[in-house]
Design goal:
Layout: H1 2-20, H2 39-51, H3 62-69, E1 104-108, E2 128-132, H4 133-139, E3 152-153, E4 160-163, E5 172-175, H5 178-194, H6 217-229, H7 234-247, H8 252-255, H9 259-263, E6 319-325, E7 337-342, E8 347-352, E9 357-361, E10 368-373, E11 382-385, E12 392-395, E13 400-403, E14 412-414, E15 424-430, E16 433-438, E17 445-449, E18 454-458, E19 468-472, E20 488-493, E21 498-504, E22 515-519, E23 522-526
Antiparallel strand pairs: 1-2, 3-4, 4-5, 6-10, 6-19, 7-8, 7-11, 7-19, 8-9, 9-18, 11-12, 12-13, 13-14, 15-16, 17-18, 20-21, 20-22, 22-23
Helix pairs in contact: 5-6
Length: 527
């Protein structure tokens, strides 16, 4: 009897522990039935998961759905095909179009002619986006691909139509902007997964002739590359959650960045763990790293357990510096020096002053600028640290991180990089719109106040102006740095990314988030 009772208790405990396992982004146990599977079997399990219980909203319902899923912070439609539109979500789709900017409509990123307008694909919100009607029309039903755009380019060359230059396909294609290539790749992964039993009958030269892989090889190779170059953004996470509330299913390729590698790529021999997912590259080791120096009792610089002393400013650029415009999230590189600006006002973020950042005049051109920085009444460069979703912006002159402490329309300073108030999500919508959102107060982002010239955190408002980013071109010969000491080092993440460049060894790890870092071919643990 005691053995039986113990067995029942053990079984109950096992069930309870299993129930505690949670997936990312509030998905709970949604993906539990795909656990421990690989490759083709994983894809089929995911197909069943994201199909079961999914609602068909109906085509007409998408207009209202977009109000929940596809609005920019300023309340206008988030158009992924054009970077010049500002559509009202209620009335912006009414009427006809003659040119870019007239009206928006419902764009099937997988053209509905490919699947003969069948349901539920026709109304699947994951792949039907609001886009400019004219650009959508020029896209026609061409596959996505890469092109020089000799047939058509939208304003600013944002979207293109022309002969495909992607290896493996030579027809006419539509190329989206770089900042949405990853988004669209993950949409195609979703479609090939959810509808794996249907794709073999679809037209368009993009999907495969069998359920696995489900995509033509040329397209699969391209989409995997796109997804790697344009990682999952907060925009995608927010849209995924919003679609789930309406349609009652999710896109696993957004919830699990790099999942395509487990389904089709280099990790098909590795089991998927829905609650303890390892994204591709997280376990990648830099070349010949030594083992950690007793990580439980690390020596200097191993023990920055309380990172309350930020880096010094020994490597801060001074004098005239050439900056290039940040065009996509790919231009966000930890260790780089960035300016926050408002182009319209030719204003750059400067020193702190009583709860905000001053505005200083800086000469600007469309894609490049040269400015004297880090002196009195000059633009202040900020060193980017951390990673997407928890970036830090370090002021090496004032030796503080930009932060928002929750006090009205302010922009504050913080010594501790691990404090959520000093961490930011940076979304590069296009070359004219950058949203820097505070991790602790997600309704607040950095804007420029044109009426009281300053930079501070505001809620989305038409009264404030959006900001842009420029990054220092450190290879130019007119950037001047103080002479580095012999003990200066570079800091790398465990996946080989450069986190900090040319910093003092004793302070190399101070202020960094928890994790494992490589300095001088040795691994150190920040706790």
């Amino acid at each position: 009897m005691k053995v039986t009772r113990f067995t029942h208790m053990l079984m109950a405990l096992t069930v309870t522990l299993g129930a505690w396992a949670q997936g990312p982004n509030g998905s709970g146990t949604y993906y539990q039935n795909a656990n421990a599977l690989k490759g083709e079997a994983l894809k089929t399990a995911l197909s069943k998961i994201i199909s079961t219980g999914a609602k068909d909203l109906g085509y007409d319902a998408l207009w209202n759905a977009y109000i929940a899923t596809d609005l920019r912070p300023d309340g206008t439609i988030w158009d992924i095909y054009s970077n010049v539109t500002k559509y009202d979500p209620v009335n912006g789709h009414k009427g006809n179009y003659k040119q870019e900017g007239d009206v928006f409509n419902r764009e099937h990123t997988t053209p509905q002619s490919w699947f003969k307008k069948a349901s539920p694909m026709k109304s699947d919100l994951f792949h039907v986006f609001p886009t400019d009607g004219y650009v959508n029309n020029r896209r026609s039903n061409f596959p996505l691909g890469e092109t020089k755009g000799e047939n058509y380019q939208s304003k600013n060359g944002f979207s293109k139509v022309g002969k495909c230059t992607t290896e493996g396909y030579h027809g006419t294609v539509f190329e989206p902007a770089d900042e949405y290539k990853g988004d669209l790749a993950r949409v195609y992964f979703y479609m090939a997964t959810r509808y794996e039993d249907r794709v073999s009958s679809w037209g368009g030269d993009t999907y495969g002739k069998s359920s696995y892989p489900g995509l033509a090889q040329w397209a699969l190779n391209m989409f995997i590359r796109w997804a790697g170059n344009d990682p999952v953004s907060q925009k995608e996470v927010d849209r995924n959650n919003a679609v789930y509330k309406l349609q009652m299913n999710r896109n696993p390729y957004v919830d699990y960045p790099g999942l395509e590698q487990y389904v089709w790529g280099t990790l098909t021999d590795k089991a998927f763990d829905y609650a303890n997912y390892t994204a591709p590259g997280e376990n990648k080791k830099p070349d010949n790293p030594d083992e950690p120096n007793n990580p439980d009792q690390p020596n200097k610089p191993d023990e920055p357990n309380t990172p309350d002393t930020p880096d010094n400013n020994s490597a801060m650029p001074t004098g005239k510096v050439v900056f290039k415009k940040v065009m996509s999230v790919n231009d966000l590189q930890p260790g780089g020096y960035y300016l926050i600006v408002n182009e319209k006002a030719t204003a750059a973020l400067g020193a702190s002053n009583k709860g905000y950042r001053t505005s200083v005049t800086a000469p600007m051109s469309r894609f490049e600028m040269t400015a004297e920085v880090n002196g009195k009444d000059q633009p202040r460069t900020l060193t980017l640290g951390g990673k997407q979703g928890s970036y830090t912006l370090y002021d090496g002159i004032e030796k503080t991180y930009l932060a928002y402490n929750g006090t009205k329309n302010t922009l504050n300073n913080e010594k501790d990089a691990q404090n959520a108030s000093a961490q930011w999500d940076i979304d590069v919508v296009n070359d004219t719109i950058v949203r820097i959102t505070n991790k602790q107060s997600t309704e607040r982002a950095i804007y420029y106040n044109n009426h009281q010239p300053r930079f501070a955190c505001y809620k989305s408002s038409s009264a404030q102006q959006i900001v842009q980013l420029f990054v220092a071109n450190v290879t130019t010969n007119i950037v001047t740095f103080p002479q580095a000491e012999a003990l200066n080092v570079n800091v790398y993440a465990i996946d080989g990314r450069l986190i900090r460049a040319n910093v003092e060894k004793e302070k190399a790890l101070l202020g960094l988030p928890k994790g494992i870092y490589v300095v001088g071919k040795k691994k150190y643990v920040v706790r």
